[in-house]
């Protein structure tokens, strides 16, 4: 068993190196902007860039709208499918897996053909319409993850009993979802929300092809034109992803601890 | 509840609420997921006047398009196979014990982060690592006198892209395959050992066959994951590496093929490839759940 354990250590060690070396290299590279000394100059330049500020704010706003919009359509659907419309479950499973089958670039291609200026529903005519289209695109990207986390949340509580208890006290469907179901699946929803945030914040394909001034296309632009700033941006992007995933871990651990 | 206003076809008055609750999602799914996909699939079989034709699909058999599919498939297969093998090994090392307790949750958390760290920033990270001015490139040449670019390595190539994709493929594999490895029961190993089986025999006849469907299924998922990716490749190589997503991107941007329906056909081909690999994944998962319940 001794040699066994050596092999395990070796696997972990090589894996760790493979994942830490690029991070260390990126961080080191990002400090090299000023000749001869390490400095945070690249970060200062990036953070002071008005285009960085506007594109980052745009993407954060978009992520928030995506999360709210996605939850608003997915939660009632998942609740009623779990409670009354079980027949729909295979269809819902299929639809929520579809974004993993159809690549993002194909979906956005379809949008551009279906909702362009000469179509029945010319969403791309106005920037508001295009922003709406982009939001819809992000909801489809996040759909598998959002639905999965909400469904897990709903399964861990007794939806039927809670609903019947609330109904016998005279609550309407809206009240039940808002005041009974939502508080009970809060941690599942938060996990889905942060995962969605991590996916949306640096997304490139949709934003670029719909011509929106989002963070992803900005990253690409900087990458094509600058040397050290991209590394600084990569470090920041990694920290955002890390923060989102860390928060999810904390949420799910707290939820597990709170359960009897 | 006036009985003359609502017919008796609805047994309970709250049924419409369920329909109302489900409708927005259904409308969304049809408008923003199913219709756009169908539009491209139908368009792939139409000529410019809207008549049925197979000529768009026939036009995929040109050297540029075929080679772009081929490079995409090669990168996806390589990153899926290598990623699946290494990921499974790391997952096994983390699960099977013998290591300190803190290692496993650390690896799981890190895999969650790294599997989501893709797109444009990942390309930046690898340029800073293995690009011409990258830390590892310079380290190798100054310490070992090994100039990897003179040796024929190029980050903007098939192996460069594969190496970069592995950064999210390996952790994704760890996440997917860990539950399956956890499903291997200790008793199986003990029973095999008592009956005199060697480690090799245990893997060859027991653990291997039980894990194989999960392993293959996960590898297929990794394949589809890499096949549809574009941002990393685009930020890394610009349009110098002709993979199919970049070809389609250029086609959407500027209609480089001068044929809109050919674009639909390229998209259709991608859906077929990722669709088939996902279908096999689902079939394999059903098979693997027989043992790992």
From TrEMBL, chain A:
<keyword id="KW-0472">Membrane</keyword>
<feature type="transmembrane region" description="Helical">
    <location>
        <begin position="7"/>
        <end position="27"/>
    </location>
</feature>
<feature type="transmembrane region" description="Helical">
    <location>
        <begin position="188"/>
        <end position="210"/>
    </location>
</feature>
<dbReference type="Pfam" id="PF00528">
    <property type="entry name" value="BPD_transp_1"/>
</dbReference>
<feature type="domain" description="ABC transmembrane type-1">
    <location>
        <begin position="56"/>
        <end position="251"/>
    </location>
</feature>
<protein>
    <submittedName>
        <fullName>Spermidine/putrescine ABC transporter permease</fullName>
    </submittedName>
</protein>
<keyword id="KW-0812">Transmembrane</keyword>
<feature type="transmembrane region" description="Helical">
    <location>
        <begin position="56"/>
        <end position="79"/>
    </location>
</feature>
<dbReference type="InterPro" id="IPR035906">
    <property type="entry name" value="MetI-like_sf"/>
</dbReference>
<keyword id="KW-0813">Transport</keyword>
<keyword id="KW-1133">Transmembrane helix</keyword>
<dbReference type="GO" id="GO:0055085">
    <property type="term" value="P:transmembrane transport"/>
</dbReference>
<feature type="transmembrane region" description="Helical">
    <location>
        <begin position="132"/>
        <end position="150"/>
    </location>
</feature>
<keyword id="KW-0997">Cell inner membrane</keyword>
<keyword id="KW-1003">Cell membrane</keyword>
<feature type="transmembrane region" description="Helical">
    <location>
        <begin position="230"/>
        <end position="251"/>
    </location>
</feature>
<dbReference type="InterPro" id="IPR000515">
    <property type="entry name" value="MetI-like"/>
</dbReference>
<feature type="transmembrane region" description="Helical">
    <location>
        <begin position="91"/>
        <end position="112"/>
    </location>
</feature>
<dbReference type="GO" id="GO:0005886">
    <property type="term" value="C:plasma membrane"/>
</dbReference>
<comment type="similarity">
    <text>Belongs to the binding-protein-dependent transport system permease family.</text>
</comment>
Automatic annotation (TrEMBL), chain B:
<feature type="transmembrane region" description="Helical">
    <location>
        <begin position="262"/>
        <end position="284"/>
    </location>
</feature>
<feature type="transmembrane region" description="Helical">
    <location>
        <begin position="202"/>
        <end position="223"/>
    </location>
</feature>
<feature type="transmembrane region" description="Helical">
    <location>
        <begin position="134"/>
        <end position="152"/>
    </location>
</feature>
<keyword id="KW-0813">Transport</keyword>
<feature type="transmembrane region" description="Helical">
    <location>
        <begin position="66"/>
        <end position="95"/>
    </location>
</feature>
<keyword id="KW-0472">Membrane</keyword>
<feature type="transmembrane region" description="Helical">
    <location>
        <begin position="107"/>
        <end position="127"/>
    </location>
</feature>
<feature type="domain" description="ABC transmembrane type-1">
    <location>
        <begin position="69"/>
        <end position="283"/>
    </location>
</feature>
<protein>
    <submittedName>
        <fullName>Acriflavin resistance protein</fullName>
    </submittedName>
</protein>
<dbReference type="InterPro" id="IPR035906">
    <property type="entry name" value="MetI-like_sf"/>
</dbReference>
<keyword id="KW-1133">Transmembrane helix</keyword>
<feature type="transmembrane region" description="Helical">
    <location>
        <begin position="229"/>
        <end position="250"/>
    </location>
</feature>
<dbReference type="GO" id="GO:0005886">
    <property type="term" value="C:plasma membrane"/>
</dbReference>
<keyword id="KW-0812">Transmembrane</keyword>
<dbReference type="Pfam" id="PF00528">
    <property type="entry name" value="BPD_transp_1"/>
</dbReference>
<comment type="similarity">
    <text>Belongs to the binding-protein-dependent transport system permease family. CysTW subfamily.</text>
</comment>
<dbReference type="InterPro" id="IPR000515">
    <property type="entry name" value="MetI-like"/>
</dbReference>
<feature type="transmembrane region" description="Helical">
    <location>
        <begin position="158"/>
        <end position="181"/>
    </location>
</feature>
<feature type="transmembrane region" description="Helical">
    <location>
        <begin position="17"/>
        <end position="45"/>
    </location>
</feature>
<keyword id="KW-1003">Cell membrane</keyword>
<dbReference type="GO" id="GO:0055085">
    <property type="term" value="P:transmembrane transport"/>
</dbReference>
């Amino acid at each position: 068993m001794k040699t066994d354990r050596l092999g395990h250590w070796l696997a972990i060690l090589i894996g760790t190196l493979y994942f830490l070396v690029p991070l260390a290299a990126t961080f080191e590279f990002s400090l090299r902007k000023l000749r001869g000394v390490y400095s945070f100059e690249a970060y200062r330049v990036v953070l002071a860039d008005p285009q960085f500020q506007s594109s980052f704010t745009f993407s954060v706003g978009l992520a928030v709208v995506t999360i709210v919009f996605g939850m608003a359509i997915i939660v009632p659907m998942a609740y009623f499918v779990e409670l009354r419309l079980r027949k729909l479950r295979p269809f819902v499973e299929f639809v929520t897996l579809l974004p993993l089958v159809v690549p993002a670039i194909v979906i956005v291609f379809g949008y551009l053909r279906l909702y362009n200026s000469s179509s029945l529903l010319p969403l791309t005519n106005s920037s508001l319409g295009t922003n709406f289209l982009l939001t819809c695109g992000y909801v489809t990207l996040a759909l598998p993850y959002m639905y999965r986390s909400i469904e897990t949340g709903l399964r861990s509580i007794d939806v039927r009993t809670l609903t019947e208890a609330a109904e016998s006290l005279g609550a309407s469907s809206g009240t039940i979802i808002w005041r009974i179901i939502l508080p009970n699946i809060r941690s599942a929803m938060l996990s889905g929300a942060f995962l969605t945030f991590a996916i949306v914040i640096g997304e490139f394909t949709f934003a670029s092809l719909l011509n929106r001034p989002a963070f992803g296309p900005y990253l690409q632009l900087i990458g094509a034109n600058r040397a050290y700033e991209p590394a600084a941006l990569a470090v920041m992007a990694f920290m955002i992803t890390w923060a989102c995933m860390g928060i999810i871990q904390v949420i799910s651990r707290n939820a597990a601890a709170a359960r009897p | 509840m006036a009985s003359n206003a609502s017919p008796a076809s609805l047994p309970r008055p709250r049924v419409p609420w369920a329909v109302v609750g489900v409708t927005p999602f259904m409308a969304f799914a049809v408008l923003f997921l199913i219709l756009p996909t169908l539009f491209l699939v139908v368009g792939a079989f139409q000529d410019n006047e809207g008549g049925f034709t197979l000529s768009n699909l026939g036009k995929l058999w040109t050297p540029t398009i075929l080679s772009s599919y081929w490079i995409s498939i090669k990168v996806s297969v390589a990153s899926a196979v290598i990623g699946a093998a290494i990921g499974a090994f790391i997952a096994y090392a983390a699960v099977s014990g013998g290591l300190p307790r803190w290692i496993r949750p650390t690896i799981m958390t890190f895999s969650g982060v790294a599997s989501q760290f893709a797109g444009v920033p990942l390309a930046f990270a690898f340029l800073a690592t293995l690009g011409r001015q990258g830390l590892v490139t310079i380290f190798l040449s100054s310490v070992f006198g090994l100039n990897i670019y003179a040796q024929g390595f190029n980050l903007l190539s098939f192996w460069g892209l594969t190496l970069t994709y592995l950064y999210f493929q390996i952790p994704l594999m760890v996440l997917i395959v860990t539950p399956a490895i956890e499903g291997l029961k200790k008793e199986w190993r003990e029973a095999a050992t008592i009956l005199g089986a060697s480690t090799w025999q245990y893997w060859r006849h027991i653990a291997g066959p039980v894990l194989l469907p999960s392993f293959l299924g996960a590898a297929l998922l990794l394949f589809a994951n890499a096949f549809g990716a574009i941002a990393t490749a685009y930020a890394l190589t610009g349009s110098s590496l002709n993979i199919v997503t970049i070809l389609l991107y250029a086609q959407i941007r500027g209609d480089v093929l001068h044929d809109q329906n050919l674009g639909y056909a390229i998209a259709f081909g991608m859906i077929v490839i990722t669709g088939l690999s996902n279908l096999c994944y689902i079939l394999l998962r059903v098979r693997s759940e027989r043992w790992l319940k």
